Amino acid sequence: MSVQAAVDKLKAKFGDTVLETSEFRGETTVVVKKEEIVAVCAFLKGDLGFNFLTDLCGVDYMGQAPRFMVVYQLYNIGTHMRLRIKAPVEESDTTIDTVSGVWATANWLERECWDLMGITFNNHPDLRRILLPEDWEGHPLRKDYPVQGPDREPYQGRVQ
Amino acid sequence: MANSETMTINMGPQHPSTHGVLQLVLELDGEIIRKATPHIGFLHRGVEKLSEHRTYHQVLPLTDRLDYLAPMHNNLGYVLAVEKLLGITDEIPERAQVIRVLFAELTRLKSHLVWLACHALDIGAMTVFIYAFREREHIMNIYEKVSGARMTTNYFRVGGLSADLPDGLEQEIREFVNSMPGHIATYEGLLTGNKIWQKRIQGVGVISAEDAIDLGVTGPSLRGSGVDWDLRRDQPYSGYENYDFNVIVEDGCDTWARYVARLKEMHESCKIIHQALDKLKPGPVLADAPKIVLPAKKDTVNTIEGLIHHFKIISEGFKPEVGEVYVGVENPKGEVGFYLVSDGSPRPYRMKIRPASFINLQALPKMCEGSMIADVVAVIGTLDIVLGEIDR
After folding, report:
1. Can you give the pTM of this predicted structure?
2. Which residue of A25, A131, A141 is in closest CB contact with B41?
């Protein structure tokens, strides 16, 4: 089964939930509605054999709507296929359901995404900060978080 | 009367066997571990955030500092991702590809040597540490000859390599690799037949294939659980499809199986290095892509085009088209991947690193809960984690 066939099956099963598919440099990306993310992932794992969650992360497209994308990199160990699933998340409601029940890998990856990007994963078993201290304020990978830190002036170049 | 209370103890972040700054909170019932909770992030440097503020060429040195025991692999994953984003994967010269494979496998040897040395040292077999570090030193000397640095090499470039091999290095690598099987036999002689070593790692840190896949474990840790998957063979990059090597799979699911798998992998790496040396033909080591690749120094100072390209690439960088790619490579510790999002600017809009050690570490509680406290040290060793990569 090719990646295209898998995408077609996904479309046939979920219809309007699949918002968009695209291909770039031979990699297929499918954008799905966030409400159905757990069902889509369970179908991809159970019926289409994407048994391995390679990676999960958030991307902040500040200035666009929806602002965030949660990105799932999937892999099929049997057929060596890769597929990327993306789910848009609005700035007004930065929550999405956890897929840690589908792939246990997602547990820490979602914690990292919460920690650095500030996306809340509903029903997550242990949603704590992972890389930053517990009392840290803000989510550094957001585009409106300054690279030099929240309470420091931006670097102005060498002193005159 | 038996006391059913558990005791919570703290291990690290300064424990000598934690390979960096890993903290484990262990809930103990006597000497049995009921619950293990890893705490990480002590080395977090914000590599992903920093990379959004640097040009694609400037991000490369940051990648050395992830898994600092296998810097060339991180470099390789990153440059492959950028090349894919640019669509110049097919334009990389043959010689550069072969040298990349050559150093990727030397790096695998180097990383596995540190794993073996530290794993054995943690468990109490101190002698092998000295022997393994002697060979590692040799590999670092080879690194130094090509890149000037022993650990943070920064040798690969988007489009090829920073420099060709210096004269005589091929012969030196060949001699070193010829000596490796003998050295590996020495390590095995010190460990494999050793009853204490066997008792300490056989049946310890067991993880089934299903659990390993579910938890996203990759690399020798996964192959030690009987899963036949290696990106070098299954999604070849940098010309790996042209090499003849075996993917080592062991069925034991325990620390012993992973020990055997890694030792055999070292032999396979030697095989690949020999083949790479045989394949080496004279030729360029940088792609013919003047808008992307920095010109040679002599062109920068002698030709106006070279000067202009140098200035443009240094001051502005190159601009890939809008898009996103993911490239994973088979690091000694597992799959290391780079997910790059480009918005058409000269800086990555978003770079997400898939860290092998981070995801492998997630399996640690599964592997040591229910076993003895002394086994934690064996499990940390067998997972072969590097905190620089976990915390990024």
Report:
1. 0.89
2. A131
